[in-house]
Amino acid sequence: VQDDELRRHRQGQQLISRLTQAYTTRGRGHLEAGRLAEAWADACQAHKLAGADPEVVALREDVAQAMTGQRGDQQRHLSQKDRVQEYIGKGWLSAAGEILANTPATDSVLALKELAEAKKLELQAAVRKVHEAIAGDDIKTAAGLIAALGDRVDENWTAARKAFEQYVGERLRSLLADGRLGLARRFADEVGGLSWRNPDVQELTEIPRRLEQLAAWAAAGAYQRAAVALERIAALLGKTPWITEAVVQLRAAAGAMEKLY
After folding, report:
1. Would you put residue 138 in left (φ > 0), alpha (ψ -120 to 50) or beta?
2. What pLDDT was estimated at residue 155?
3. Helices within the chain (DSSP H only)
4. Within 10 A of 149 (CB to CB), how many other CB atoms are there?
5. Cα distance between residue 121 and residue 142, in whole Å
6. Cβ of 213: how many Cβ atoms within 10 Å?
């Protein structure tokens, strides 16, 4: 029994070590590419797993330093207070907290700590509302929250954004597969203008507009062009009976048109 427990413990430690290394390596890659928000998120994940591991500590320090110097010479002239306020405004609450934790507790610092805590609570409430909106199929509310807060260096917010994108992708796939094109267009319009981390979701939101375009081509007699465009959409959606049938009909119309000329 002891051997089994020891083996499980070692396996757990090995998994933590691998995950820590993966986060650290990816964080370094983000840092070198200038993606500071992503680098900080990975550094925080590694810190949760490995604590004061030298590589993790070094990564966190390097990312914090890069954040501080991000705006070059002009940024360096900003006061520490201004930097913290900027970080709080961008949602870099952990980075702001790191600076505040090592700053003497003046009235202004205490006020900033209260502001950071209030923003943290606000973000937690937004995360909860996004999940509630998804569960209630309330795309307008969910999209509004995502648009309002954008990107934040917070693992719960990142998870909420991922859940939102998954919901949008699955909903659009379902509507398009069932041929409910009007509903799909209205749904896509609700999330129009948002930035997407998942390129497949980005493409799915564009399909209703593309379907309208190829319908216009077909109406103008450009059957071959419409068929090719529809086949590209089918490749993204997978096997969809109504699209398969539509492609067959467009190909037949294109063939008939060629015979006429």
Report:
1. beta
2. 79
3. 2-32, 36-50, 54-68, 72-76, 80-90, 93-101, 107-135, 139-149, 155-177, 181-190, 199-219, 223-237, 241-260
4. 18
5. 18
6. 13
Condensed to tens digits (0 to 9), the pLDDT of residues 11-36 reads 667 878 888 888 999 999 988 888 88
Which residue type, as a one-letter code, is found at position 72? G
pLDDT of res. 77: 39
Q: Output the pTM of the full model.
A: 0.60
Tell which residue, 151, 171, 169, has the closest CA to residue 161: 151
Tokens found for residue 126: 């937004």
Name the maximum alpha-carbon separation found in the chain.
85
With tokens 């007699």, the residue in question is: 221
Return contacts of 190-197, CB within 8 angstroms, 24+ apart: 190/139, 190/140, 190/143, 191/139, 191/143, 193/147, 194/143, 194/146, 194/147, 195/150, 196/165, 197/161, 197/162, 197/165
Place of tokens 């959409």: 233
